[in-house]
Amino acid sequence: MNLLENTELYRTYGAHPAGEGWSFRVYAPSAREAALAGDFNRWQPVPMERQGSDWVLTVSDARPGDCYKYVITGADGQVRWKADPYGTYAQLRPDTASRLFDVSGFRWHDDVWRERRRETPLTEGPLNIYEVHCGSWQRGEDGAFLNYRRLADRLAPYVRSMGYNAVELLPVTEYPLDDSWGYQCVGYFAPTSRYGDPHDFMYLVDRLHRAGLAVILDWVPAHFCKDAHGLIDFDGTSLYEYGDPLKREHESWGTRVFDFGKDDVRSFLLSSARWWLEEYHIDGLRVDAVASMLYLDYNRRDGEWMPNRHGGRENLEAVAFLRERLAAAGIQSEVEANAVREEDWANNWKKYFKPLPVGERLLICPSWETADNPDHRAVLSIDPGMAFGTGGHDTTRLVLETLDESSANAAYELTFLFAGVCSFIYVVFIRRQKLIARQEAPKYIGAAFETAGQFAYIYAIGDKAHVALAAPIISAYCVASVVWSRIFLKEKLSLKHYASILLVVAGIVILGILDI
């Protein structure tokens, strides 16, 4: 496949209405045979016709709501019953078949929202994001899941009344296991049937938009679950996953890793991204588990991974997918961003993720903490450069422009300059006056570095107004600490004590305001 021409594969593959019936097309280049079975033929497999790497069939008796699977005789001779990789609707778990559904025909009412988005991108103001798992935010009186429509009617007014302007939905791409919360997907084009059908999910997005709320969807292109009906060994070969055993699996997660070096895999993933952005009016995608994509040694011991051609641990194919292929695939005007930890940006990633041309913006944001690891995240958005911050159900983060190479270097140099001065004052002057215990000195040094780092970051991106505002606040804090110690704690403070506090204030003010 030619990646440049195939970011809308959902228009070709999968099941589509065709006259009085439905047409089916599945990609299985190494399959010996392929057949189709479903409600429309009483689950008796009917052979499909090979067309190059594809297998096709038109069924006149198929009707919306019918369940179906592809019966693939793989290159290894094994017969596998597979759900449709491009299926738009699925049976409710534990059943695993795809279902016929025509997603067209939904009547949207979010024209005002979309026009407002075109005129005033979300990047021009702060994003206050409310994170939601559809299955646990609220339940019905009987403990059952709310469907998408009932959830929409409860969620939209609540989130709006709380002052948020965006909702982030944990993955709704179809998944087998409730406990995974959707982070181990099997259907990259189907909203999970746990809460309704595709039109019900469209209603949820539409309702949130009409309430003035952006909708951001968690999206998982890093790996997929190993359930037999899914993508694993699809045509008897490693069609979607890496064939290399040193890259193929995340054993601790029990998942297979997408092969980012294959054009057809990248096309599949990019088509999935475009599907949600265009067909479901999603405003942005939060990319999960990016660290596992970027690092070949992620959660692997020595001997379980192989360095790249440069001898490094970066997965160059994943880097190319995240940074270059998104633009090359024609999503450039809609999707641009990659988030990496600041320390890795300075040391490693700035050589891969270069500043975008004038008129486009690449953003970075801090690590998004998860339950098991501080992870990298990437953000894909219809508006160039939408990014958002650290995790949690109640998330508030201003959007910041990325540091270019010179600014990034300046940030780290200034961090150590600020921290060095503050630490010197803390330890040499204050410690000499025995105002802090020896064992507490590291705590004060750590606080100095943390404060200095914040100043350096703001300073490096040119927002000196914030530094000028912060310096008096820090100064006031220092003065308040003196007053508290003298009046309330009844401590006798020497002239040298006051002098040391003034040195702290002077250091912060001078370094923060002057253009050094």
Low-confidence parts, pLDDT < 50 over ≥5 residues? 329-347, 350-412, 457-469
> How much strand content do the residues show?
15-25%
Oligomer: single chain
Secondary-structure-based class equals alpha+beta
CA distance, first residue to last residue: 53 Å
- Which sheet architecture does the biggest sheet show? 6 strands, mixed
Outline type: globular
Question: Radius of gyration, Cα only, in angstroms?
Answer: 27 Å
What number is the mean pLDDT?
74
Helical region count? 11
Q: Count of DSSP E strands?
A: 22
Helix content: 25-40%
Strand order of the largest sheet: 21-18-14-11-10-22
What descriptive keywords fit this protein?
516 residues; alpha+beta; six-stranded mixed beta sheet; five-stranded antiparallel beta sheet; 11 helices; 33% helix; 17% strand
Outline the secondary-structure elements.
Layout: E1 14-18, E2 21-27, E3 33-38, E4 46-47, E5 49-51, E6 54-59, E7 67-73, E8 79-82, E9 98-99, H1 111-119, E10 127-132, H2 148-161, E11 166-169, E12 173-174, E13 187-191, H3 198-210, E14 214-219, E15 223-225, E16 249-250, E17 255-257, H4 263-279, E18 284-287, H5 290-294, H6 316-331, H7 342-347, E19 368-369, E20 374-375, E21 378-381, E22 394-397, H8 405-432, H9 441-460, H10 464-488, H11 495-513
